[in-house]
Amino acid sequence: VNNPVPDENLIPDPTEDLTSLASNIKDLELTVFQKDQKIKFRDGQINNLQIQLKDTKNELENTIKELENIKGLYETISANNDNSIPSEKLNILQDKFNALNKENEKNISRINNLNNQIKDLDNNLLSVDENLKDLKIKNQNLTMDNKSLLAKNLKLNENISKLKNKINEQSIEVEMYLDQIKKLKDRSLHGG
Fold it and tell me: Does residue 155 sit in helix, strand or coil?
């Protein structure tokens, strides 16, 4: 007697969607971790640049003070037009003044450069933050989808069990009917 067997294609494969979803969640978690590491690295860079900027500003302030002192001394000497200071010392002061002026210009350029680097890192950090927020939202959505699929999978497994039980019950009933039919045929053939 042939037992009726349901077509396997009628029941969806519950593992198919779950594995790809789990893989997506793991990929997102890895991406979030990598973004966190980039944020920490950029925070360190920003802190280092801010320290460099502070140091450079201090150097600039000191250079400006020294430059002002030399400038004042130079102007005093020039105003007095006193020949009591040898021109050699005056030339040394002039050279020192010129060197400090160059150093001052370098420091100003360095400060501007450091400020630009800090702005760039801040902009990159904002971009990473936005990406991280998007990834967290996707991760939450995938987690909710995963839970939903797990619930559906459990329900499908329950329905499959019920269907198998029903098939077994019907198979038993069919066997009983077939036995009864066989007995009736035997009676009718033997005149019973």
Answer: helix
Which parts of the chain register pLDDT below 50? 1
Q: How many angstroms separate the Cα of 145 from the Cα of each of 3, 42, 71, 95, 170?
A: 38, 33, 73, 74, 36
Q: Give pLDDT, residue 166.
A: 94
Please tell me whether residue 1 adopts helix, strand or coil conformation.
Answer: coil
Q: What pLDDT score does 81 carry?
A: 62
Can you list the alpha helix ranges (DSSP code H) found in the chain? 14-80, 87-190
pLDDT at 170 (0 to 100): 93
In angstroms, the Cα distances linking 158 to 9, 73, 152 are 17, 96, 10
Each residue of 84-107: b (16+ CB within 10 Å) or e? Answer: eeeeeeeeebeeebeebeeebeeb
DSSP structure class, residue 3: P
**Within 10 Å of residue 114's Cβ, how many Cβ atoms?**
20
